[in-house]
Amino acid sequence: MTIRNLDALFKPDTVALICNGGHGEEIIARNLMSSGFKGPIMPVDAKREALAGALTYRDIASLPLPPALAIITRPLREAPALIRQLGERGARAALLVSETRGLPPAERAALGQAILDAAQPYLLRVLGPGSQGFNVPRSHLNVCLNHQPLLPGEIAFITESGTIGQTALDLGNHHGFGFSHLIHLGDSLDVDLADVLDYLAGDYHSRAILLYLEHIGDARKFMSAARRAARIKPVIVLKPRRYPEEPDDAVYAAAFRRAGLLRVDDSDELLQMIEVLKAAKRVHNDRLAILGNSSSMSLLATDTLYRFGGRLAQFSEATQQGLEPLIESDALPNPVDLGDQADADAYGRALDLVLADPGVDGVLVVKTPSVLGDTTAVADALIRRLPASRHCIIASFPGPQTGADARRRLLERQVPTYETASAAVRAFMRIVQYKRNQALLMETPPSLSEEFTPDVAAARALIAQALNDGRGSLNEYEAIQLLAAYGVPVAETRLARSPDEAAAMAAQLHPLVALKIMTPEAVAKSRVGGVARYLGSPDAVRQAATAMLTQLRDVAPAARFNGFVLQPMVARDGAYELTVGVRAGGGFGPVIYFGQGGAETEAIDDLAYGLPPLNLHLAREIMAQTRIYQRLRYSLLRRANLNALALTLVKVSQMVVDLSELAELDINPLWVNARGVVALDVRVRLTPPTDVPIQRLAIRPYPKDLEETVALPNGRELLLRPVLPEDEPSLQALALRASPEDLRRRFFQPIRELSHDLAATLTQIDYHREMALVAVGPGLPGKAEVYGIINLSADPNNERAEYSILVDRALMGLGLGNRLMRRIIHYARARGIQEIYGEVLTENKPMLQMNRALGFAVHNDRDDPGLKHVVLSLHHTGLSIG
After folding, report:
1. Statement to judge: residues 838 and 769 lie in one domain
2. Which of 202, 304, 421, 863 has the fewest CB atoms within 10 Å distance of its CB?
3. Secondary structure of 412-474 in the HEC alphabet?
């Protein structure tokens, strides 16, 4: 489902506790009573007159009020009937504490379906079963299975492990930090991780989200929710790197990067992040200044900074001159070594200088125990400078006793404080990494360097023939033809049906050729010496082919012979050997990989993964994850055409999107040098087609079926199509051509141009949840002019969607706006959206006139007379879409 009725789960006004001697009900009842919940609490228990001081009701029908939230601790077998009764009584959400452990798998599945069937008619949401509850301090709602209160805070914690949640609660209380939400998901029968992410993304009181997860159910739903949340606030994830029956860790790492999540390595680091998240808004870049009284501790911190890709700040000349009296004569400018006798005054003067330096993004203050220098006084000196500072200041005051009071004071003033300098630097760099990831994901991808139009029909014909023949793979010749159909440069390849034909073809090729026998039986192929290289004459080719064929018939008489493949022996000419391919990624669907190729690919273990679909920017990001990329990018002696390489990944990505039968593809080797790429060998494994091919992808690809050519009254033809990230510069150009009045009517404020962030938001959309259609002229995305755009953004429930539109002033009056509106209405109806709405300035008469003509109801805004609210119900309109 979606976030529907999650407000009743986490912000209920009435709560019922459905119990009968079940698991943990006394604990939950006491927590609920003591949390200060403001609404009625109604226990239902036929065996007791009171529970935790509250009178009980005999059954659900006896409740005086409909409960917004019901907490069920009774055995799970009773849950379907109880859910049905609660739905009839008007309940909107239920927490199932009862566990599924001990139930046979078949009964567990049947009970789960029965619970969903009981809840669905009432749109009642279910958290659990097996959930240890949740705590929302702002709602005074503690329904957790633990004995400790939760301090209020601004960070939400979602966990799939009750013990991890309990540990976080313990540590939070010990260190004095709190949470806005602590939620244990349980078995996620209905309300799952994606639902809660969607809910918390819109929660103003949660400035960041921490996740502990072990598996992901619906990958597409998770990716959409995670991407949306991570664009709004930091989302930090901890996941065990090896978990049974799950996709391998490299796939998860790729998914987290694509969604913009920040991954940490262990539970200690996850909780350390809580402190630095308080200062996340002040982190803009990675230039760190380190001030301390121990050169050794500062150097260790510097090592950590470099290991995580950070930089020491380069001080201005004025800063260096000011620091000279405070440091040893032979000390480095940064880290700033104040010496072991440094007191609070020295720290304060150094801080004043460093905080005023424009080349500094963050400051780490380290105060190790020493005979001289009051640790608490140093902390106070730092605290006094907080109000005037816009920098991220973090601190490390080691020592369980000597630093305890200083750490307490700093934490009370929201200064991220750690017992080791390395932990402080690591936390700082994680926030830098998060912001880098977000910036990378929002970068404008370049337009394709060539017109890329794959021959999809030819590719599908190759695959269909193989499947019709009962084969689960393409032969060597077909695999090369598949790459060629998608414009991947390949070595010249000939197909011969006999040794004589192979010899004749060899005479037409390079003086040296390679010969391969084609047989589906891989074992037979290896036993007959199925590959011969550096054959220098037609006779040599004939002899090698005859020997292979004879051996094949001797070794495996039943093996099928499909011919010979000939390729010229291409000179490597300094080319790098790489590999590009596709393999299964578990629930995430097919994934694309890139890395160092050759015979020892597995031993070298230098592969990076990415989720399709890809553009050039995302392809480069995958390449950058590998070790070989540094050589490809920076080698002056062996240059590599990185653009051609990235384009190859994009082409392979398009294969994955177009060809649902493509199970595995392995190009190895793929040679790349300064001139470009060439694929020498490729293996392709097939699988029968699926009913809904597009559903196998974790990220919804570009919906090409929405493309439509339209003719305007002046004879001009435009292409209406979904927006692409590459369209950003063309959209910015459209805004520059618009009048100030047009832009004010579209964005409700005076703007002169579209910033990168705003333009990226409008063009880099999630097709699973949003849609934007553009009207463009001829040319590639990023080069074709955009003459109009209409955006439609649906709520997570997919019930209501808001539209906005901008049309080139030069084309107004030609019906383009009407075309865009009708097309987006048609799309919304097909997606099952129930209502389209928008905000229109009262002065925008042409837009209001078009709204009325399309069937929109126009309402006055109660708070702003200059604004109209327009609504189109898609249930009741008979609008014809042309």
Report:
1. yes
2. 863
3. HCCCCEECCHHHHHHHHHHHHHHHHHHHHHCCCCCCCCCCCCCCHHHHHHHHHHHHHCCCCEC
Distance CA 186, CA 96 (A): 9
Phi-psi category of 814—alpha, beta or left, where left has phi over 0 and alpha has psi -120 to 50?
alpha
Is residue 592 packed enough to be buried (19+ CB in 10 Å), middle (13-18) or exposed (0-12)?
buried
Averaged pLDDT score across all residues of the chain: 91
Q: Tell whether 65 and 134 lie within a shared domain.
A: yes
Instruction: Go through the chain and tell me how many residues it has.
Output: 882
* Domain-ending residue, one of 539, 569, 599: 569
Q: Identify the domain containing residue 418 by its residue range.
A: 280-441
End-to-end CA distance of the chain: 32
* CATH number of the domain residue 122 falls in: 3.40.50.720
Q: Letter for the amino acid at 540? A: A
Contacts of 878 by beta carbon, 8 Å cutoff, 6+ apart = none
Tell me how many domains the chain contains: 5
pLDDT at 281 over 90: no
Q: Is the peptide bond before 129 cis (omega within 30 degrees of 0)?
A: yes
Q: Average pLDDT for residues 648-669, to the nearest whole number? A: 96
Residue 525, pLDDT score: 56
Of the residues 422, 441, 460, the one at which a domain ends: 441
Hey, which residues does 212 pair with through a beta bridge? 159, 238
| 13 and 117 share one domain | yes
746-to-359, 720, 735, 739 alpha-carbon distances in Å:
38, 20, 10, 11
Which of 766, 752, 812 lies closest to 820, judged by CA? 812
pLDDT tens, position by position, 413-454: 888 888 899 999 998 998 898 888 888 788 888 877 666 889
Residues 6+ apart with CB under 8 A from 315: 289, 323, 333, 334, 354, 357, 359, 360
| pLDDT at res. 683 | 94
Considering the domain architecture, whether residues 302 and 430 belong to the same structural domain is answered as: yes
Cβ atoms of residues 854 and 872 within 8 Å: yes
What does the alpha-carbon distance between residue 669 and residue 276 come to, in Å, rounded to a whole number? Answer: 45
The pLDDT value given to residue 449? 64
- Domain membership of residue 242 (yes or no) is no
How far out from the chain centre does Cα 757 lie?
18
The answer to whether residue 788 is domain-embedded is: yes
Whether the model clears a pTM of 0.85, i.e. scores above it, the answer is yes
Range of weakest confidence among 258-272, 375-389, 620-634, 846-860: 258-272
Task: Give 854's contacts (C-beta < 8 A, 6+ positions apart).
Answer: 818, 821, 822, 825, 872, 879
Average pLDDT over residues 93-113: 92
Q: Are residues 752 and 816 in the same domain?
A: yes
428, 498: one domain: no
Whichever domain contains 525, its CATH number is: 3.30.1490.20
Nearest to 172 by CA among 158, 152, 187, 193: 152
Same domain, 460 and 608: yes
Of 820, 484, 811, 448, the closest CA to residue 655 belongs to 484
Q: Which residues of 171-186 are buried (b: 16+ CB within 10 A; e: fewer)?
A: ebeebebbbbbbbbbb
Query: How far lies 739's CA from each of 161, 295, 774, 787, in Å?
Result: 55, 60, 19, 14
Note the Cα 273 to chain centre separation in Å: 19
364-420 residue pLDDT tens: 999 998 866 688 999 999 999 998 888 889 999 998 777 888 988 998 888 888 889
CATH label of the domain that carries residue 362: 3.40.50.261
Q: Is residue 234 part of a domain?
A: no
**Domain assignment of residue 339, yes or no:** yes
Distance between CA atoms of residues 348 and 377, nearest Å: 10
Task: Give tens-digit pLDDT for 452-504.
Answer: 889 999 999 999 999 999 999 999 999 999 999 999 999 999 999 999 999 99
pLDDT digits (tens, 9 = 90+) for 846-877: 999 999 999 999 999 888 889 999 999 997 54
Sort 98 into a burial class: Cβ within 10 Å, 0-12 / 13-18 / 19+: buried
